[in-house]
Amino acid sequence: RDPTALTAALERVRIGLTRRAAKSGEADPWVARVHGRLETRPSVEAAVADADLVIEAAIEDLEAKQALFRAIAASAPADALLATNTSALSVTAIASATGRPERILGLPRR
Prior knowledge:
This protein has 110 residues and is mainly alpha-helical. The chain has helices spanning 3-24, 28-36, 44-48, 62-75, 91-95, and strands at residues 53-56, 81-84, 104-106.
């Protein structure tokens, strides 16, 4: 909800893209093209309001993820899939906070 934080997050993503491009031999235009497709929204609610798929990548803390999933589930369309990238926490425990556990899936980063 803090515009400064959103700007800082986009800059961290740009830096990460630049590092990846350097390692893989991609050119700078690739970074600009990918980064240019990113959008920010002022809130979780606004970000998920018209989403078909939401992929969460928050800190590995059950209470934090449950709170985030409650907010996501309250604002995302009823048929949206909600995914967590947790590799350490119970997806079932995270899903229990949503009221629609059948729409939650685990998508851990490997």
